[in-house]
């Protein structure tokens, strides 16, 4: 039987989703455990990425898996961007909302792995999109920040309902295959 995580996904309206996360000074066993629990939770909800702020942890940690392998990263920074792409993105912290977001098509990410070793990752297309999305979370930025005023007005009622809700309700979440949107 798989180990269950104690972490819970925070939904829009939680103040931590708007904060800039603290940089990790020294990687330890606690960070490795948090990253593993984050990965379990991401997979449980059919996500392709998750940031620590989305689970109530104010540290610069992300997990990403677009189907090519799991990345567990600490203090990730985008050091280079090239090209542009537009994808409709979803977010585990803003369930059932999709926003078309313009991002770089290729990025280079500089980070630490779960053992504190420096890594440089070149990513393009979907993987580049997910890294940018998760790093946005570490800086308090959400996909709705990319929506136009008109788009925000169209989703206002849904957002108001989510913002008033502080606890996770599994019934609100759909897998990426059910909703047709990436859940990052």
Describe this structure in words.
The protein is α+β, with helices and mostly antiparallel strands. It has one domain: Alpha-Beta Complex (Peptide Deformylase), CATH 3.90.45.10. About 25% of the residues lie in helices and about 30% in strands. The strands form 2 sheets. It has a 5-stranded antiparallel sheet with strand order 1-2-3-6-7.
How would you summarize this macromolecular structure in one to three sentences?
With about 180 residues, this protein is α+β, with helices and mostly antiparallel strands. Helix content is about 25%, strand content about 30%.
Question: What distinguishing features does this structure have?
Answer:
three-stranded mixed sheet, alpha+beta, globular, five-stranded antiparallel sheet, 5 helices, Peptide Deformylase
């Amino acid at each position: 039987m798989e180990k269950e995580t104690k972490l819970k996904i925070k939904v829009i309206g939680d103040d931590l989703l708007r904060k800039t996360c603290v940089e990790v000074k020294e990687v330890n066993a606690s960070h490795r455990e948090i990253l593993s629990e984050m990965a379990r939770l991401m997979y449980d909800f059919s996500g392709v990425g998750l940031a620590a702020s989305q689970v109530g942890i104010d540290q610069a940690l992300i997990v990403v898996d677009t189907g090519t392998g799991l990345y567990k990263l600490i203090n990730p920074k985008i050091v280079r961007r090239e090209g542009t792409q537009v994808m409709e993105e979803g977010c585990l912290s803003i369930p059932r909302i999709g926003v078309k977001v313009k991002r770089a098509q290729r990025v280079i990410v500089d980070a630490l792995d779960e053992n504190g070793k420096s890594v440089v990752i070149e990513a393009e297309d979907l993987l580049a999109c997910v890294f940018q999305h998760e790093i946005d979370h570490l800086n308090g930025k959400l996909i709705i920040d990319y929506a136009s005023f008109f788009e925000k007005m169209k989703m206002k009622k849904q957002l108001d309902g989510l913002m008033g809700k502080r606890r996770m309700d599994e019934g609100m979440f759909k897998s990426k295959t059910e909703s047709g949107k990436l859940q990052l």
